[in-house]
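Each lists chain and fold; for instance:
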Amino acid sequence: MGVSMVHITVSGHPGSGTSTLVQGLAERFGWTSLNGGDIFRAEAKRRGLSLHEFELLCKDDESVDRSLDILLQERMVGDASLDVVESRLAGWWAHRQDIDCLRIWLDVTPEERARRVVNREGLPYEEALEANRVRIELDGARFDRMYGLAPEDPTPYTHVIEASNLSAHDILEQVASLLEATS
């Protein structure tokens, strides 16, 4: 009996389409998944905080981030491993654990990410653009301080997909082709 491990990690900045891709992969292949963004949003809601307020809490209390990161890392290997793990640091965790899997980074322009957030959350465009900018800045500083890394650094990723002009369907098809080519 071998050790189970994640098949693919999906990473990208807020609004890049990672959640949509994970949902599509889970449906297409019948896979289990863990979405770091959903966990983050659920924890903010559980604490009665907005995403921005929760970001500020994480900035001041690193134990919150570390506990979520440990959960993600634990779910990548072993009997409880999932098929797809999504978070901005999932590719880094798989890389650092030497997990032989596809590690995808979805690269999307700030403007397109803001448009996607507008569609998802109904925020005004300028507000979504600024919220994404602030979130990336806060998270980037925190990840650098805590782990000495930047999520968008291409080092850990097996594939960086320029997804600004791709539909959700096109992204899914491209990643499915990559998965099928490696199986």
User: Anything to note?
Assistant: Residues 44 and 109 are 26 Å apart (CA to CA). The chain has eight helices and five strands. The first helix runs from residue 18 to 29. Strands lie at 8-12, 33-35, 84-86, 102-107, 159-162.
